[in-house]
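Subject: Sanity check before I submit

Could someone independently write out the structure tokens for this chain? I want to compare against mine line by line before I put it in a report. The sequence has 248 residues.
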Amino acid sequence: MSGHSKWSKIKHQKETTDAVKGKIFTKMANIIIIAVQQGGGNSDPDTNFKLRMAIDKARNVNMPKEKIERAIERGLGKGEGSQIEGTVYEAFGPSGVGIIIEAATNSKTRTVSEVKNTLERNGGVLAATGAVSHMFKFVGQITVIKDGKSNDDIMEIALDSGVEDIEDLGDTIELYTEPKDVHKIKELIIQKNLKVSNFELIYRPINTISISEKDKAQKLLKLLLLLEEIEDVQKVFSNFDMPDELMG
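---
Independent answer below. Compare away.
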């Protein structure tokens, strides 16, 4: 298992913790707002696939309907609250690892300052646009729980549904799709009785940097977790690879 894939599991666990803390609703609202904005003001989930994904994920964490509707209104520039913008930062972490940071903010000045300070205090540095993103591919990711099904059965269903790549993680399988197809394919495989635990748009590493020393691993993981803790940060992606035992 690649270190990055295991990091995805850690992030999913963090989302559960955020839900308990009540933080997840704010993050979900911001994702909905940005989906409407990036769709050119399209508030119809049937024709705005990012909005459909955002609403589905919000419902999965039991976000109340009125909060979802309020977020859509804010995405249209209506209702109360300051303007939220989506932004992406690129950075290098310890050991030269590439990092992509997705944020949603009402103050890019504040957010970039927090991101920059966190990086510099923990062995990282903010990079120019394009310096890191070429190490990743933007894709849809669907996590399937095996739930007693064989790898061959899951792979057959996945490939028949239009999945581009598959990664076996032991108790789960990650399916990778074109970004625009992730919701459609998720619905197809659910209809074929596969159990989906998560689906999202991610930056998947094209190549990885191997880390085998414990102190270097701890330093990197600490930075990634600190970046995740910044209030405006939505997601953090990295192209490291390390043995499971170093993931803690």
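---
OP: Matches mine. For the report I'm noting this point. The chain has a mean pLDDT of 89.
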